Amino acid sequence: MRGNATVDYRNPRVIRRLGVDVLTKELGPDGMAYFIQQFDRGEGDYTAERGKWLDDMTVEDAMKEIKAMRSNQQD
Question: How big is the CA angle at 17 (ends 14 and 21), to the nearest 5 degrees?
């Protein structure tokens, strides 16, 4: 989609993908993430909500979830 190729600038998915690609190339993955975070403030109280999600979770539970996610990605 670079160079002389036509880009559909009306398609949010295309613009988002191109933007992330350029930011990653120029800033690296960490820089891209920090840049994006400046524009996405989120909502709610993350600290309070995080406690609700993780209060009863053990390390073993977290490892099981990670393994399940990895397994699903490979399928």
Answer: 140
